[in-house]
Design goal:
alpha/beta; single chain; elongated; Porin; 4-stranded parallel beta sheet; VAS1_LD; 2 domains; 10 helices; ATPase activator activity
Length: 422
Amino acid sequence: ALHEGHVVTAQELTALLQPVFTQSSRNLILFLQDTLSIDDFTYLSESYSNKNPFQNQVNKLLINLLQEILRSSPSSLVLPAVDCKATRYLLSFLQESGDWKLTNITNLDVSQLEANTSKPNLLVVQLQPHGSGLNEISTLEAIAENDKIIGRLTIDLQERGIHFSVIYTAVRPSRISRRMDVVGKLKRQLMATEEEDSLSYPPLNVTTGNYTCILFYASNFSLKANSSVFIDLTNATFVTQNVDISSSECSDINTTLSLKYTMPVNGISSLEIRFLMTNKFYEGSARNWSTLDSVEIIQDGEKFSKFNVSVISAPAEYSFHCQLVGTSNLYPARLIPSNNEAKNWDVYISRLQIQGFNIENNQFSYASDCAYFFTPAIWMGLVTSVVLLWILAYGIHMIMQLTTNSRFDDPKGPSLSVPQTE
C-alpha cells in the first residue's frame, strides 16, 4: 500500500517485482510504449465512451478499478506513480534478474510467436508510438491498436495454457499535471515526475575498449519509405537498444556510426543507417571542425540511398545539436538526396545531438546549435528597416532643401517683374 502522490523509486520497484521472479511460472510479458499515464485510461474511456479504445479484458478491469477508486475518493485524488528513471532501466533490470529467454516482438505480429515453457520467457512487445500530443484522435487510434495487440497476445497464450505475468508501462509519462496546488501540497507531479535532466533516456554510445568515441541522441528518430511505410526507430535505438552498432568505426579523422536493425517493420528484413563524420583542419578559422558529411541508408543489403548533409558542423571539441533534422525543406538542417533511391525515403529526427570526436567522461561536450543568430526572418526585417529609413532620410533631406521666395506679388499694386538675370 502506497500513499497518494507517492513516486516509486527504482529500488522500491525492484522490491515490488520480486514476486514475479519467485512464482512457479516465470513467463513475463513486457508491453513497452513510448508514452503512457494512468490518466489515459480514465480520460479516453470517458471522453470517447461511444468509441472506447479499451476492449481487452485486462484493460477493462483496470479501468473499472480506477473508476471505482475515483468515485469512492472524498476529494481530489493523486494516485501513486513510478519514477521515469525507474522505468527507463526496467528492461535492463529484468534481463539481469534471471536466466530469461529473451524474445523481442517488434513487428507486432504475434501469430508466429513460439514460447518454450521449459525455461523462463521474457517477451518484449514494442507497441506503436502514440500520435502527437496535440491530436487526441490520433492518440486514441494508437491506443486502440495497442489494446488489440495486447488482447491478441494474451488470449493466444491463454488458449495454449501458458501461465504468464504482464507489465504494461512506458518510457515516459504522456500527461504531467501543472496544478500548482497539488505540486505545492505533495511536492510531486500528478502521475509522474519530470526528469531533472533534459534527456528522457541516455544517448547511444559506441565504445572502443574503455573509450567512448561516438555519442548519439534524438528524441524522435523515424523514417518513412515510399511515403507510406512509417518506421519508428526511437525505442529500438535508445530504450531497448535493439540495434547492432558493431560495424561502427572510430578514428581521429573519420568516424562512422552504423545502426543495423533486423525486421524493423513488415516487408523490410534488414535496415542499416550510417552517419559519416570527418574531423578536418580549416585554415580560415585556424582550427579543426567536425562535420557530418553524409547519411546512408541500406535496405535489405542491396538498396543503397545516400543523402548529402547541409549545416551540420561544429568545432571538433564540441558536439552538434539541432532541433529538427531531416529531408523536409522546412528543417534548419537538411538531408539532401544524392541518388534516385534516396528520393524514396523521408527522414525525421528531432532534438538531434551527435559527437564523434574528443569525447570526455562519456558525456556530450558543449553543443554548437544549428540555429543561427541572423535567421532569414531577421535579415528580412533588417533589410526592410534599412529601406524605410533610407526613404525617411531622403524625405527629410528634401523638406530641408525647400526655400521661400524673396519677393511676393501685391494684388493691389503693379505686377511684380523679375528680370531673367535674377
